[in-house]
Amino acid sequence: MTLEFRQPPAYIVGMGGEHLGDLLKRLGVAAVKALDKIAGTAAARSLASALRSPATGVRFAAWVALGKMGVPAVELLLDALKDNDREVRKLGVEALGEIAAISTVEPLLAALMDSDFLVRGTAATALGKIGGPAVDPLLPALRSPSENVREAAAQALGKIGDKSAVEPLIATLTYDVIQEVRQAAAGALGRLGDARAVEPLIAALNDSYRLVRYAAAGALGDVGDARAIEPLIAALKDSEWLVRRSAVYSLGTLGDARAVIPPTFACQDTDKNVREAAARALEKIDVDA
After folding, report:
1. Are 111 and 152 in contact (CB under 8 A)?
2. 149-162, pLDDT tens digit by residue?
């Protein structure tokens, strides 16, 4: 049986913190949904503790409630970011992202250094939700000694979409020694869609790491500049099928009459995924022409 409270009963509202904790154990999700409607420190603390529940439904309901609670929940969520359980840390970061206040920027920046890649990625997404206020703190993070922080910062800046990040991201794409960071920078530049990134992205088509080339090919399609057409056609000969397919998709997106994929390419590539993508791209170019 699932208990639902449209409004929290009076006996719940009057409970102290220790009794609320007992209620959570006994009623689970229903209790968390009731606490969502109760203002007060005791309720907030119990919701924060519910992030550690072994029951997935309870953890999810607590995350939703804390996110809706707003700024008053921030301090309580900081403890969740220090938990040994990565799922608890991830939920804490997600809740901070839902709150999306300036006061959450600093703890979310710290979460970019988390040992778990899922937590770092969630922090990048959360910073993206905050938007403009997170840009200035994120730009120095592109030069962090930690490669994980640099990668997550590039992802976050791409999600925010502020053009002031274009030049720093170009520098990251061009000079960072870690391939995953360069890949993240290429993807972010594609999201930003600024023409200043075209030449650096074209250069990245010759990167030694296949996923950087893959990301650069896709980003050039997102930017949509005709200067990319010839380099993308050349990328159809890349040794990696992922890169070839990404180049095909971008040529189809550009839709320029000059972006003609050699007709024989559609049937001769060694990879089925690339052949199918080429056929679709050729159809799109024909239609657009």
Report:
1. no
2. 899 999 999 999 99
Collapse the DSSP code of 124 into the 3-class scheme (helix H, G, I; strand E, B; otherwise coil) and give the result. Answer: helix
CA quadruple 129, 160, 175, 239: dihedral, nearest 10? 90
The CA distance from 133 to 105, in Å, is 8
Q: In angstroms, how far is the first alpha carbon of the chain from the final one?
A: 60
**pTM above 0.90?**
no
CA-closest candidate to residue 92, choices 60, 116, 46: 60
By the 10 Å C-beta count (0-12 exposed, 13-18 middle, 19+ buried), 71 is classed as: exposed
Rg (Cα) of the chain, in Å, rounded?
24
Burial class (CB in 10 A: 0-12, 13-18, 19+), 220: buried
**pLDDT tens for each residue of 122-152:** 898 889 888 898 999 899 999 999 898 899 9
pLDDT confidence tier of residue 30, bands split at 50, 70 and 90: very low
**Measuring CA to CA, which residue among 216, 278, 215, 287 is closest to residue 251?**
278
